[in-house]
Design goal:
Distance between the termini: 69 Å
Helix content: 40-55%
Number of helices: 13
Number of strands: 7
Strand content: 5-15%
Length: 341
């Protein structure tokens, strides 16, 4: 161990391991640990407040709306959001998860942040609430999910807020190493994931210039078209609270659009790079393909597929059927000769 004195500088101070440090040093260590624990507790307390407020704003709900869902007074819910709760019981947290329309994974993370334990095993998210009410649309999405599952590349459905409606197994595999997060999971809201999840840069290569800036440009266009949309406004408020993202939104995006042109912000056809957790893929080029059908358009949904390929345009990665990849070689354009022809 070492101590610091003004006159002598840093000195090595040996002591017998069997005896240990002096009582004074023990007290000093305990005080330091207590201070560290207090700082961590303060950070955790603020994070608890942020989770409830961010999720509520993401849904476009006021405190009055959420209080009505919980069947408590507005003042009582305001205390919940400010962290003025004597005890977070399972009943309160499960009610919050239902009122905030949380998925099973989001509920798990809510319990972990609030009380550092798992939710009761009997709780399951009400996934049925996410499906359209129209029976024809529900049936269509069931069949569309089967179609997406047959695609070997990551594919997902999003609405104008980037809320994710459906994903396939290839999408889940691409983001399988992403840690839980209360508001920015890739299969909940893709824009929030790109902008705010700490693991986004580990999967999305060239994260800031290739993913954040183009999506911020698309977001700016969507917000300009629907300035009263509560979901988009909630994302804008979260961007404003992040100094880096706010600078990118206010200054980086206009400069980027001036340099590359408005078409560079389009999703369809954009070529980017991802780092797949499967070593058979690894660092791989992907082309984003955005498309919609008449039925999807009626539900306000767009399908985005990340077509993974080697830099030359040939199929990349393993071709194992058990991993969900195609057995046969990839298709080629007849008008374009194969390499080596």
């Amino acid at each position: 161990m070492k101590i610091q004195t003004v006159e002598e500088g840093e000195l090595s101070v040996p002591h017998l391991a069997a005896v240990g440090p002096s009582d004074g040093l023990v007290r000093a260590g305990e005080e330091r640990l207590a201070g560290d624990e207090s700082a961590r507790g303060a950070v955790r307390s603020e994070r608890r407040k942020e989770i409830l407020r961010q999720r509520r704003e993401e849904l476009g709900l006021s405190q009055e709306d959420l209080a009505a869902r919980l069947r408590i007074s507005v003042r009582a819910y305001g205390n919940w959001e400010r962290g003025l709760v004597k005890e977070w019981t399972d009943r309160k947290l499960l009610a919050l998860a239902e009122a905030l329309e949380m998925s099973e994974r989001q509920c798990f993370w809510l319990f972990r942040i609030m009380v550092d334990r798992d939710p009761p095993p009997t709780w399951r998210a009400a996934e049925e609430n996410r499906l359209p009410q129209d029976p024809a649309q529900r049936d269509y999405l069931v069949d569309y999910a089967a179609l997406m599952e047959a695609v070997p590349y990551p594919s997902f459905l999003v609405d104008h807020r980037w809320d994710v409606a459906l994903t396939n197994s290839a999408f889940d595999r691409l983001f399988q190493t992403v840690r839980p997060h209360p508001t920015a999971l890739p299969d909940d809201n893709f824009l929030r994931f790109v902008l705010f999840h700490p693991d986004a840069a580990a999967v999305l290569e060239d994260h800031e210039p290739a993913w954040c800036v183009p999506l911020l440009a698309q977001f700016a266009t969507a917000l300009a078209a629907s300035p009263e949309d509560e979901g988009l406004r909630s994302i804008r408020q979260e961007v404003a609270r992040d100094p880096f993202m706010e600078a990118a939104y206010r200054y980086g995006v206009p400069h980027w659009l001036t340099t590359h042109g408005q078409e560079a912000a389009e999703q369809d056809g954009a070529v980017r790079t991802v780092r797949h957790p499967d070593p058979g893929w690894g660092l791989v080029r992907c082309r984003m393909m955005a498309e919609t059908s008449r039925m999807l358009d009626g539900m306000g949904l767009t399908r985005i597929t990340l077509v993974l390929s080697a830099p030359q345009g040939l199929p990349a990665g393993p071709v194992r059927g058990d991993a969900g990849f195609p057995q046969a070689p990839g298709a080629r354009l007849r008008a374009v000769p194969a390499l080596g022809d």
